[in-house]
Every structure is written in structure tokens, then in C-alpha cells.
Amino acid sequence: MVRILNIYIFTLVVFAISINTLSAQTVSVEAKLDTTEFLIGDQVGLELHVKQPVNVDVAIPIFDSELTNQIEIVEQSENDTSLLENGDWLIKKRILITAFDSGYYALPPIPVLYYSDTIKTEPLLFKVNTIKVDTSQAIKDIKMPYAAPLTFKEVLPWAGGTIGVALLILVLVYVFRKIKRNEPIIRRLKPKEPAHIIALRDLTKLNNDKLWQKERIKLYYTELSDILRVYLWNRYSIRTMERTSEEILESLKISDFKNDELFDELQSIFKISDLVKFAKFKPLPDENATCMNNAYDFVEKTKLIVVEKEEEIQIENEQQKVESGNKELIEKIDSK
Amino acid sequence: MNETVDIKELNDRIEKESSFVDMIKMEMGKVIVGQKHLVDSLLIGLLSDGHILLEGVPGLAKTLAINTLSNVVKADFSRIQFTPDLLPADLVGTMIYSQKKEEFQVKKGPVFTNFVLADEINRSPAKVQSALLEAMQERQVTIGETTYQLPRPFLVMATQNPIEQEGTYPLPEAQVDRFMLKVVVDYPKFEEEKLIVRQNIAKEFPKATAILSPENIINARNVVKDVYIDEKIERYILDIVFATRFPEKYGLEKFAPMINYGGSPRASINLAMASKAFAFIKRRGYVIPEDVRAVSHDVLRHRIGLSYEAEAENITSEDIITEILNTIEVP
């Protein structure tokens, strides 16, 4: 019986040892630092590698803000699992550590749990150096942090806001003044005078000035041709002031001016004007009057008539009123 | 129309005196196909006593045009091919020792003629150019201690090639200014070139006949001087020239940094003279703005000094003149 018991105990011990050895061979843990020596306050990476079979559950520790009292954790990555060629898993974790005191530090073994067992990394040793201080020199004052230069992106919202507020104030002032003066807030721009109105007014003024009657023929024709040139510029958008008479007439032809009679009238005015202006030509009084009449005629017959919509509607309404009035009258007469 | 006596008389006179213009054009047209602008410019130079600089690539009938003009006028003509080894004495003449007479005798150079064709003027060094340009300006040449008057009419027509600038001596600005006109000769049109080819492969090349004497030209020049130019036109001419000097005053601020120097007073004089000659060619007794505009490019293109900025911007004097003419108010 005792022998049987001994054999049983021996078998259990061998079994237990064999399981432990098998497991220990399949899970391995390794920790390594990027460097074993660094400057105070620098940040150094600590790589934790765990190799394990696929069917084994391993618990890798989650670290708090520090590994020891003096070794702080800046950040730590998530577990990164990859499959090895032999079918095992490799779990990687990267921890960024730092220390704010100089000297030698021992990184304690990091435990990794699997089943009821624990496997630990090797302890690591590293050195934190301090900055060498030249004690022979006088002690310098603490330097203030450097001020970073302002960027456009930082200034933009402030500048935009300021301009916006300024504009708002201006608009409010404008609106307030308008209300105070009892004026409309939005003023309608006065429409530009039509070309023919300007030309006819200037021609009338020139006619009233009686320049050729006062023997000021050159001035008379200079002004007459200028009025027509301004009219053509406003009416047909031809750059007349910088062009010669011939060029103006040429441009008018190009702009599809169809009326030959009016074209000849204009040509005649320009021709006489050029002769008077540049060749001491003295036309007969009849010719002076004819030129003026032709100029009036040209403007009157080429003026651009724009009928405004409001006027059109007004005319239509009036026509409708007249028609309805007529109908009523006819009905009354019929009824009588 | 009741014209004042002066203008009427002048117009009639010019109508009569300028009848030869059409004949010259006709005779030149026998030899020169197209190139109307070139022929007009040669006539302007001839009638207003101004020298002409022709610029164009080879083979555009520059030399032929000048040669033909001298044939038509029946005047003495010399052609001087400017080369790098040409000397001033080769041009104006020199003193030669006569062993027989045991004294120095004057040997007049080819410049003593009515029409001088200075072919490729920029191929000779500055001293030769200066000798010719002095003769152009003074219309006299001094050899030894004696000054000799050049024959009348005296007209220099120089050519230069805008390409092949290597080994050339560009004319200094001060000397270019002495040319009344700088005419840019362009390629003929398609149909014109067809005629040129036909003309040149035919058995006989047409010849221009002499229809005028140098005296006729001198008389015509006096008539050209009588062409009436109004004060308004004078102002217009001055506005154009002043705009090349002070573009900012004429609303052309953009050209201010592009112009180093504008047209000289000689430019104003030549513009007025050329306008009169152009009016004469058009058989008119008075100048109109069209005449001024027609000759402005030829008179001003070599008188505007461009800055590096203009060159960088690819702005030419042509562009500046065109813009000035399109900006200044026509009287």
C-alpha cells in the first residue's frame, strides 16, 4: 500500500513538473529599453514583447502613471498582436518613460500572468544624466519661456471680429442718422442721363451761344464735333475722343450703323468741322445752320428709347380703364 | 463751300505740284511689289529732307526700293556696303599726294552724291558711322582744311538687319535720332510674293524710268513747307511727344518706369515735317490728325529709350506709341 502511494505521489510530481516545464518553454517575456543612458527629462521607449502559443491566455499588466516612484510613464501603446511564423503570437507594447532625477535606476521585472503562473522580464538598469553646471560662473537668472510669434491664423479671427464690429457700428451710425434726418435708408441712385438728352441739351446751348454769328467759327465747329463725338461714345460705346473723324466713321460702319442718309449727314459735319479746325475753312452761314440742324437730326433719329416696365404697366392699366369705360357706356346706351 | 483764299490757293498749288507723287508711285510699283508703306516712307523722307533708316530681315527689297527711287529721280546714287574694316576716309574722301603736281589733291568719297545707300550701317565701327552721320546732319564734309557742301538733295537711306547681331556696332541713340524715320519693313503678303516670284523668273526684270530731276524735288520740298499746319495739330504733335517723356501726365502711369527717355525736340520737328509731307503725298494743303497718326510710329519708334523693366515685360516702343495714340485726345 505504501509502495502504491509512493508511486502515485511520484507520478503526480513528475506530471506537475512536466506541465510547468512545458508551459515555461512556450511563453516568453522580454523587456528592452531604447537606450540605457539619457538626459534628465528625456523620454525613452520601453519595449515589452510577449511570445505565447495561440491557445494560452496571458495577462499583460496595465500600468498606471508610473513604473516606480521615480520612473514616470508619459504614454503607453495598446497591445499590438502579430502572428509569428511558428504559429505563436507576439504581443508588443511600447511604454514611453521619463525620469526627473539623475542617477542610476533599476527597472523592476514586469510580471506577466498566464494561468496560475507568472513569468517576469529581466530587471533593467539605466542611467539618467544631468546637465553639467559650470560652478565657476556666476549664477544666471531663470530665463522666461520663449514667446512664440503670432501667426496669421491666430490673428485672423480677432482682425475679422474687429472689422465686423467696426462695420456694424458704421452701419448703425448711418441708419441712425438717416432715421434722424427722416431720409430713406437705402438711396436709389439717380439713373445716368441718356446720351441723346445730354447731346440735345449741349446742342441747344451751343445754338444759343451763337458762336458762328460772332465769327467764332472754329470754336463753334470744335464744340459741335465734340458734342457729336461724346454722343457717339455714350450711344454706341465707340472710343471717339481718341480717334480721328475717319476712324470714327469707320467704327460706326463696323458697329452695324445702317442708315446711309444719317451716315452721310454725320460725315458731312465731320468733314466741314475738320476743314474749319485744321484748314482755316470758313463755311457759309447756311452751312453752319445746316450742320447744326443735321446734328439735331442725327441725335433725334438715332436716340435709344427705353420704355420702363412701370410706364408700360401704367399705359396698359389706362388702356384697360378706357376699354371698360367704353363697354359700360355702350351697355348703358344699349339698355336705353 | 467757300474756302479762304490762302488755303484754296495752297490746295490748288499742292494739287498741281504733287501730281508727280502718283507717277513716282507708279514707276516704283513697276519694280517694287507691295511695300506701299515703304514707298510712302521713302517719299516722306525725300520730300521733307529727312534721312531714313530701314530695318528688316534680308531679302525684303530694301536696297531695291532705294535703288529704284534714285532711278526715278534721275539723281546721283552711291551704294556703300558698311563692313567692319571700312574707314571714314573711304566714305567722305581723303587727300592724296600727286607726285606730278607735287601737292595734295582732294579725292572725294562716295558720300558726295544725291542719294546714299548705307547698306548694313551697323556692320561698321562707330567712327565710320559718326563720319556719315555728321555729313547727314551738317550736309557738308571737311577734308583737310576745306569744307565741301554736299549736293542737294542729299538723302541717306541706311539699312540694318535686326538679326545676326554678332559682330555689329549698334547705332548710338544720339545718332539714331538723326534719322527722321525708322521704317520697319515686313514680309510681303501671299499674293504679292506670288507676283514677286513671277517678276523675278521672267526674262526681263522691269526697270523704272527717270521722271524727275533733283530740281523738281527741291521745288517740291518748298511746297511741302507751305502745307498748312494748324495750332491744334501742333498741340496734338506736342502732346504725343510729351507723352513719351512724361507718360504719367497723360494717364499712362504704367509706362513711366518703362521709358528711360522720350522723344527729343527733334522728334517734334520731324513729326510735324513728316505729317506735312504725308499730307502732300495725299495731295492735301493742310495737315489733319490722320497724317500725324500715320507717321507717328516711323518718327518715334527709334526715339524712345526703353528700360530693363520694359524689356522684361516684353513691351516694345511700338506698344508704347500705339497706347499713346489711343489715349491722347484727337483735336
Description:
- The complex is a heterodimer of chains A (336) and B (331).
- With 336 residues, chain A is an alpha+beta fold.
- Chain A has 8 helices and 11 strands.
- Among the domains of chain A are: 25-129, Immunoglobulins (Immunoglobulin-like); 195-302, no CATH class.
- In chain A, helix 3 packs antiparallel against helix 4 (217-236), helix 3 (195-209) packs antiparallel against helix 7 and helix 6 (260-279) crosses helix 7.
- Chain A has helices at 2-26, 152-180, 195-209, 217-236, 245-254, 260-279, 285-302, 309-335; strands spanning 28-33, 37-39, 43-52, 58-59, 71-76, 80-83, 89-99, 103-107, 111-114, 117-120, 124-129.
- In chain A, strands 1, 3, 5, 6 and 7 form a 5-stranded antiparallel sheet that branches. Chain A has a 3-stranded mixed sheet with strand order 2-11-8, with no helix packed on it. A 3-stranded antiparallel sheet of chain A has the order 4-9-10, with no helix packed on it.
- Chain A is elongated, with a radius of gyration of 52 Å.
- Chain B is globular and about 70 Å long.
- With 331 residues, chain B is α/β, with parallel strands linked by helices.
- Chain B has 2 domains: 5-216, Rossmann fold (3-Layer(aba) Sandwich), CATH 3.40.50.300; 227-327, Magnesium chelatase subunit I, C-Terminal domain (Helicase, Ruva Protein, domain 3, Orthogonal Bundle).
- Chain B starts with a helix and ends with a helix.
- Chain B is built from 14 helices and 11 strands.
- In chain B, the strands form 4 sheets. In chain B, strands 2-5-8-1-9 form a 5-stranded parallel sheet. A two-stranded antiparallel sheet of chain B has the order 3-4.
